[in-house]
Amino acid sequence: MKKIILKIFLFLIFTNISFLKAEIDFELKTGILQDALSGKILYEKDSDISIYPASMTKIMTSLIAFDLLKSGEITLDEKFTISEKAWRMSARGYSSMFIMLNDEVSVENLLLGIIVVSGNDACVALAEGIAGSEEEFAVLMNIKAAELGMEDTNFSNSSGINDPNNYSTVKDILIMSKYLIENYPEYYPYFKETTFTWDRTGGDPITQGNRNPLLYKDIGADGLKTGYLAVEKYSLASSIERNGRRLIAVGSGFNTKFSRSKESQRILMYGLNKFDTVKISIKNQTFSSLDVWLGKKDKVDVYTKEDIYITIPKRKRKIIKAYIEYTGPIEAPIEKDAILGELFVYYDDNLFKKFDVFSKEKIKRLNIFSRLIKSFNYLIWGDV
Could you give the CA distance from residue 260 to residue 236 in angstroms, rounded to a whole number? Predict the structure, then answer.
């Protein structure tokens, strides 16, 4: 047996010569842009400074409900009774879905009221229905934030209305946005709905539009949430998917609604137009095959336990190489999911990262007669 380096592929990335400026900036106080597949941060501006997240808080409110739907603790058609506190939110001038006092509203309608029309009344109703009180619901929000690694965030209410103890950063909002998109593909389409009609009890139906301006542009945007507080000005967590590639951006401190829309679109287009994302491996899918010695099969398929992507600038010729290094041929028996070697990925001759590769299958050892013949052939002919 000997160390073997198996060259898997060689990518030559040819793009139009379009050198990036040394620095690029957008008209906002704080912002961040990430390629969701590779995790690469493509733009940052003061992403750790504390902000008041305003209605972007509702991303976490929705996320708590999605967690409970997944675990079966609540259902979409389950109904919550509307309290006076929730009802009064619509009477105080806040954005609302205009729920009625003592009405019974389904979880799904409350979620649509939160996600599409940014209803603060729906947030309180959902929080009380889940946890008994908005204060107890905020505890659940903070537990989830800690679980996700949102180190600079504290939630004090479910809607994001004025409270100095309800704070976060654009980096933390990016973390929870990415988590929601990746873990709840069945519910995430709520965020791209442009209208919601609330067929309320005891009144005419009310139709309201989604406040996310990017949904009305033909750019592939499908979420997430706007925000506004006088002290923080305008904010937006946004996402776009094009040709299987997803970008997520969060910005805060836009001066106007118009600049929020324009600059958020510019940030996303910057990510699409200035960078490429290259697929290396898809988790749990066969990546390559390695030689087997004295096994009932001559090859064993291998895989990685995570998706591997690289995001690179579109500015000049670049080279991506990948090699599997292993001691081989690998002697049978081989157990399924055994570590068989390491995948080394190089970008422009620099090691990007290395990953374990695992056996896709169990391969049994040949019987003794077949092993003797195989060994004899190897001694005579060098044939493995």
Answer: 7
pLDDT at 377: 55
Residue span(s) of the chain under CATH 2.60.410.10 come to 2-14+280-381
Q: Pick the catalytic residue: 62, 83, 118, 235? A: 118
- Is 257 one of the catalytic residues? no
- Selecting from 3.40.50.2300, 2.60.410.10, 3.40.1160.10, 2.60.120.620, what CATH number does the domain 2-14+280-381 have? 2.60.410.10
Instruction: Respond yes or no: is residue 2 known to be catalytic.
Output: no
209-242 pLDDT tens trace? 999 999 999 999 998 999 999 989 999 999 999 9
pTM for the full predicted model: 0.87
Q: Enter the CATH code of domain 30-254.
A: 3.40.710.10
**55 among known catalytic residues:** yes
Q: Which of 38, 55, 235, 252 is catalytic?
A: 55
Q: How confident is the model at residue 69 (pLDDT cuts 50, 70, 90)?
A: very high
Percent of the chain with pLDDT over 90: 68
